[in-house]
């Protein structure tokens, strides 16, 4: 099993392919290039330029244009001999959550998030530049209806991270307050958590289980990724 910090090359290829049709002048003559762009004198940084904003808008338009090109993908269930399921465990505010690692492309350090004019939804934070590619950035706090206040932990060693998630039409970025890591959870525990009901557990939740003395909310990745797609169209 790969480390949560290891780059999924297939996922990165998706990110790069999505930007091939966009003139990434910020990487050639802009702030990340040789800085020869004559507009830099007025705008100081590429993110303040209308060309950068227009490129980000075209990136988001891609989500709307590709909706009819996809058919639902069947969830391939592991065979009956597999007794664990791999979850990425992370924290938002005071709540711990888990999501299937098959959704994960990479766990990355925080990147600057550049807001856009005329935001399309409350969950859309803007775009982040990930290795020269513009990637849409969403708030899981908003999507899940959580308390937006981030609470640190004693010692100050916890560093916020960004999760790069493989959504239906390409990677998206979501900031989180802490990543614990990837863990194999006994499938019997997950089955019991799912059978106990999710009505009081919040949106996009398959169940709630006890994990390392914490109450862990197990997210339904299919429903969550569907909500992510809707937020970008």
From TrEMBL:
- Quote the subcellular location field of this record: Cytoplasm
Superkingdom of the source species: Bacteria
The record's listing under SUPFAM superfamilies reads: CheW-like (SSF50341)
Listed under GO biological process in this entry are: chemotaxis; signal transduction
InterPro entries, sorted: CheW, CheW-like_dom_sf, CheW-lke_dom
Q: Which Pfam families match?
A: CheW (PF01584)
- The residue ranges of the CheW-like domain are 84-230
List keywords of the entry alphabetically. Cytoplasm
CC per GO annotation: cytosol
Q: What is this protein called?
A: Chemotaxis protein CheW
To which species is this protein native?
Pseudomonas veronii
Lineage, top ranks:
Bacteria, Pseudomonadati, Pseudomonadota, Gammaproteobacteria, Pseudomonadales
